[in-house]
Model the fold of this input.
Amino acid sequence: MPAVPEAVDTFELVFEFDYQDVPVILYRCSQTGLRLAVAQVQSPTVHGYFATQTEAFDDYGSPHTLEHLIFLGSERYPYKGVLDILANRCLAQGTNAWTDTDHTCYTVDTAGSEGFLNILPIYLDHVLFPTLTDSGFITEVHHVTGEGANAGVVYCEMQARENEADDMVDRAMKLAMYPGRCSYKSETGGRLKELRELTNEMVREYHKTYYRPDNLCVIVTGQVDCAALCKACAPTVESILKSDRIKSLPPLEKPFSSPVPKPSESARISIAFPAEDEESGAKCEFAWHGPAWDDMAEIAALQMWLVYLTQDSIAPLQKAFVEKDPALCGEVGFGMSEQTVYLFHISLSSINVKELSTRDVDEELSSILKDHVKDAGACIDMKRMTSLIEQKRRQSLSDVEESPHDFYSGEIIGSFLYASDFAPKAAGGSGTPGASLKARLDRPAQLSKLLEWKADQWARVCERWMLGASSSPRVTVIGTPSKACGKKLQSDDASRIEAQKKALGEKGCKEAAEAVKKAEEENETDTPEELEKSFQLPDVSKIRLIEVSTVKVDVGKGTIQSVYGEDAGRLKDMLQSASGASIPEMSMQFDHVTGAQFVECQVMLPVDGLSVEQLELLPLWCDVAFELPLAASDLGPAMDYESVVGALTDITVDKHCSVGFGGGRFGVGSAPNMLVVSMKVEKSRYTEAPLWIARMLADTMFDVERLKTAVKRILNDVPNSKRDGSGLMRLAMRALRFRDDSTYGAFNVFRIERLFSKSLSKPAGLQKAAQDLESIRTALLAASMFARVGGDVLSLGDGILKPWRSAPFVSASSEGRAPVVAPALMRELYAKDKVRPTKGKTLGCLLSSSAEESNYWTVDCDCFTDPRSPELAPLLVAIEYITALEGPFWRKIRGKGLSYSYSMNHFLELGIIRFSLSKATDPVGAFLQAVQIVSCLCMESDDQDEAEDTAGKNVPKEKNPGGEEKGDEGDDEDDEDDDDEEDDEDELGLDPSSLEAAQSGVLFQLIEPIDTIPGAMGQAFDNTIVQQPPDQLQWLLKEVQGTTADSVQAAMKSYILPLFDGSKGRMVSLMCPAQKRSKIQAELRKVKPAFNVVQLDVDTFVKTLSPAEGYAGLRALVAEGGKGKTAAKAKAKGGGKASGVERRIDPEDGIAYTFDEISAHYTGTYSKSGIRTYWEAQCSVAKGGKASKDNGEKRVDPEDGVAYTFDELAAFYKGKYQQHVLQAYWDSTCTAVRSRQPRSKAKAKSKAATRT
Done:
């Protein structure tokens, strides 16, 4: 980069220094106070962070709502979405922002600096001079809909958060920790009640107070020239100097300057949060006030003390609460909030509720802390403390390499907020410029000082901040799971909405709808075409990517092969020299980047040969892999588990054991047929990583007590899955696809719960599990292995292969290894009976939860799998075109407040294309909008009528207050319909400028994951795992730039349109609040072709998936319940003879059931007396009773509109549905034939015989 100038125009250099070879620079505008901070990270991407310090003393959410409104236009660019539209043309994927307790930060990331410098002045104009219109407030923040409900993008977002367990516990803690007036306890996102009361004028006043140039810092990380950056800000400086509003501002009163109040005494608070499982999943937080922000030495010491107390299985609090029998919880952690005065807490999660009720956690914690303070810290393990400090030092250096943008920007933002020496010439500034920032960046130096500490110094830290008279009183918050709490919250909200609707009346609801529509129209000011075209797409060829060179050892062929990269030849020569007479006995891959400071080693072992029973134990092994004792062997001495944990802390930066890359406790990752053991170490300690991986595999002793602890830890974590609505939705989708006898089935959380609680809860079961794990290990070590080394491989020297030439990497058998097994693609584990909806069919699940307040949707369609498909680049561009910020979905789905977020993705490995909604207030409305948008985009502009007809198939006509459908003439609302049609016209075909922006967005999407050394090496290995060519990225970058409007629209028609019009088979998984299930069911009828979903509450879903054939069981329910029945009802119908002959129609779905079937469905949701009352008062007696097979009566099957006798219907559906299901379908769904001649019996039989 060019030399750093002392001054550029009005910007003066404040400080400049290097940390880890990265120049860190700060400029300050002498006329406005605006600050520009730069960290010149070596990366192909440039990241911008525009931070303003914001303080709120209430829960109205002004900081958060303002964050949203900033993007709706500025005084110079008064067009909604112009910022994102232009950013999309700068090799970016739009813009983003976050709101924290003490600041709001606006972001944009670009590939290269050219696009960043182009968008910067426009972005700053939005931040400092936003339009803040009333119409924007209505749509983006909060409004009342025509149905009398509350909506808005911000409202939708916070509705999904307000009653989550973590948020509720955190809020209770902060209210107790900050008595009186203090902004640190405020909900800056906004509470729902306050959001309903917030006004746009309040937001305008908030902007006036805090959004000013002397309270704004522009932070840039990446390769950007300082002089060019300062010049790019010149238009902003000019606007500031001309602004009468800014000229009239009083001197800045530094936010967060008031003393931080503390509680006068310790407190213990208990709350309930919504959950489906009340036996486990409780939470506990212990909170204290900590050091002042500028007391860096004390902060570093306190952080290390908290690490010592909590980090691993031999930590004091882990031993007391997780390892001790009986275990209280599944996890112990800590957190520290960066503030003027730090707030820190220790958290216990996945707590067993029964155990919690019998223990005094406050007293237990105090006792542990006091034990560590007495006798000058005599019981503190100083060897372990030293190990932890060294590991933290390594991890800090690793952060610089692995996530440099986050690392530097995070510390710069903190210094901007709280360091008095960040810009001494600013109001209140003092000290040596940049000294605090430099010290905070150099964490290793701070940690090195702690290596000299003695035990008594650590004891004083504990006493001062957690026990002593000078520490703040401790606040303890205990949150317990409650199903009743969730039901009450949902019921109360439903009652509130009903009362609101009643108060508004029909007229008020209509006025509310008109206000929203008017606001939407006012927001639709298009960005001038000439402005868009003035932003030329940057030259991609100027962007320098991180070079990765790859070489493979192919044990099957007995060769070392250069795969890709400019250093591949040198790397191959080095490996051939190191191999000597023979190559290693296993296949290997080496990914090299010059200058990498850390090395990652991974070993994969195929699990294909394991039995189902053995696969079911893999979750246990993965969970406990690094905390088991080791037997003595040629690899090393015997070690107890505490020594193993300590040794691994001493050498590793990170370590993982999972099935597949990216797998976890209840899920598998890429290469799902592989057990993966991974370690990351400093380059100088490379040889130790293979040695320890070898010991983890070969010497591990499956100690029963360690297994017992892990089983309880895993079981305590299960309830967290039960209240994770989006996670349950994804699990249902996996169940519809994958085999029960695969690793996907073995890692099914509810199957794990059932197996572990039944078979592994007793000593005999654990003993057998230990023996079975020995057998599993023997089988895996006999199989072929695959190893990977990533780092600065050329610097590792000729000894690079030596650690891989001993057991277990070398076979002890004269017969050698088993044949090489390749990593499996995810789709290769699909079940033979995978749900495969036929053309025009949509099958899946509708889940409901009392712990969930938002809706989540996933809709899948099959798609191609070829990584070199000529349609891949056009499809990626098509997806970006539709989903981009300020693209069609953004404006019509998020912009209308129908859903907080949405996504569309193509998954090559799965062979699907997927549309998802997250935190949706009106998921059906959002989906129908998507249908309409995609239908229009797939039509040429001269096919307008056809487009409108196609879109209309999925959008039922609205009804006027009199109940009649709106026609083409005769009322005043036709003009509004015409306006809507004109809007649709605008969406017909593809806009050339938007197409270029979509290409730009995809280019950034491809470059961003490889903008760091670990990211670039990781993608090189990913190409191997998912069987893609090594130059896939380079090929795809060229292909994207070569896409055309025709190729993109063709991809839309072939792959995206079927996802929405149902012309191909679709799979769906939906999650909704229990209280709103009936409403969602009713609204789903608007979707055509129909969503045939089986309905399950969480309890039923858990029971369905928990058996060994749980996935297959759900697939069977989907097949049987495809006409809209709940799982409980479908099961009742197939479960043998009903105890009663009378059937009544459930108004929930219009189907007839016996009382036993109704009772089975609603048990757990309503009391027995409530079900009986419902049966007698609301369920009408089904007409016709049992169908007569002899009277020749015919009824119309709504599936095809043809009339059949019961015998003909039964003959067709034989083997698909059981008799009771058919009886109910005949009674309540098939309609009697009226005024029609029945078809001949022969034709009916023919149809029945040929249908599939």
The chain has 50 helices and 34 strands.
